[in-house]
Amino acid sequence: MLRHAVFLTVLLLVLSGMTASAVAFTHGNVDAGIAFLWPALAIAVVLGMALPRRTA
Predict the structure, then answer these.
(1) How far, in Å, CA of 19 to CA of 33, rounded?
(2) Are 18 and 37 in contact (CB under 8 A)?
(3) I need a surface site. Which of 16, 22, 43, 55 has the fewest CB within 10 A?
(4) Cα–Cα distance measured from residue 14 to residue 30, given in angstroms and rounded to the nearest whole number
């Protein structure tokens, strides 16, 4: 249950960062698009590694 809650939190944070990045790119703001993209990817990697392991 905790694993799913953490996964959904990570998913929400990553999707919001990716959405902000996509909107910035479509408006021609390359610097802002990159600025929103890197933290979203960092959140995905760091919190994805911190997920509790599955127990058998």
Answers:
(1) 9
(2) yes
(3) 55
(4) 18
Q: Tokens at residue 43, please?
A: 């959140």
Say how far apart CA 43 and CA 41 lie, in whole Å: 5
**DSSP code at position 51:** S
Asked if 43 and 17 touch (Cβ cutoff 8 Å), the reply is yes
Q: What is the pLDDT along the chain (56 residues), one digit of tens a residue?
A: 777 887 888 889 889 989 999 999 999 999 999 998 998 889 888 877 877 677 66
Is 6 within 8 Å of 51 (Cβ atoms)? yes
Exposed/middle/buried for residue 21 (C-beta within 10 Å: 0-12, 13-18, 19+)? buried
